[in-house]
Amino acid sequence: MSISHMHEGAVKAIVGEPEVVEDASGSAATASGVETSAAWHRLKDAATTLQTMQAQDGSVPDPADHAEARVCVEVIAAAILELAPEFPHDAEYLAASRRDFERWADGGFGIPDFLDSLVAFQPQKHRIDGIRHLVVFPMYTQNGSRNRFVEAVIVEVIWPEFIAELEAGDYGNKLFVSLRLVDFTPGYDTNSAVLFPETVTMREIPPFTWGAIFQDREAARYRRVVRAAADITKLELPAEAAAMLDDQELAEQTFVMWDIIHDRTHMRGDLPFDPFMIKQRMPYFLYSLEELRCDLTAFRECVAITARLRARVEDGETLSATEGETLKHAVLVQYAVIFDRIFRFAITGSRVRNYDGLGGQLLFAWLHQRNVLHWTDTSLAFDWAEVPAAVVALGDAIDELYWRSIDRPKTAHWLAAYDLVRGTLTPHPASAWARGLSDEVLAGAPKGYTDAVLDDEFPLSMFYEALEKKMRPVIDSTAGIRGTD
Q: Where in the chain are the domains?
């Protein structure tokens, strides 16, 4: 998931120091324990009831439901008012939220418009470890539900000191917010692991200033899936990688480091196009390469960070506490990128234009064909000393594709990207792209190229077909997972 590319309009970052809100005792306000309060449960229940009356666009279309819907809105607004003192840093937003709810009800429950409260919500200004937010919007949940229902979540910021140092240094990303799910309505009892402002129902699109990822969910499903996959494939995990499977907090912080580098990469480098911010339809393998490029950049950067800090230790220097944490997590990011990509991404979701799945397949096959990953005697093994160079080489190949394509027409770039993928993965036997597109398609509009791509242009290998059958129950079990599960 990414923040820098998630919007199809202009993105403007808020630049400045985060605000620190303190309670009367002088401690950062964290709203600890608010998820057990009666007010939160009233709010959550009212939102869930309201969802049963909402249409997909968020409206309540049946006038017979309006009286009950108004009661639900009144309960939600009253609960927000009661809970607001726990979230002084969000006072402006919570006040605007109550007004938006009241206006929606007074207007007859048409398509909701929560622009005012969305603009007032600025979590990127409060990147303080442990601080919480109460978030209530009519919105869809990416990878969860396309219904723009009223959803409510309590979230907690994950922002350890070493991440703050990274972000303040070479990996600045003012839009990035890292969160932990505390409690939520049904839209987040799904595979959704992001909170993006673009999902909110509103009358117009403002400049977006933040985007959030639930690293606790990413870490929890990673730990469950990788543990099962390692057992099934008889993979002997390195001690550092195994430790992450036993430690949720360690895994969460690793994913924060991975995601903050990944996210900023979308708008950096020699890009032949603005990968995601221009609304356009294109072959899904282009998205595969872009997401993989960003993951492999995070991998490459962590290899460089590891080498730099280890060299200082070898020279007799003593690392600071945050530098030690950075080194530890830089090593773990490398394992996380590989294992999440090859064990979870490759076999999660449908086979309909699954671009993340394709990226996982490509990474596995690339490493296998370079003899640093082995599937022998029904056991999986890695030559770990050789893995970093092989992974970086794939990143370099994608970077080379991008650099060359600055001078190529769009469709020529698409063809070159396809050649890169099929140089490692075998296309479907019925693929028109693999046989060669007809002159009519080649001379026509880009739409013809995209229409010719099969939904499953690069089917799962026999290895993955067998693994997917064994892993399906485990992957299905991660829907709605949180860090405490």
A: 34-209, 219-476
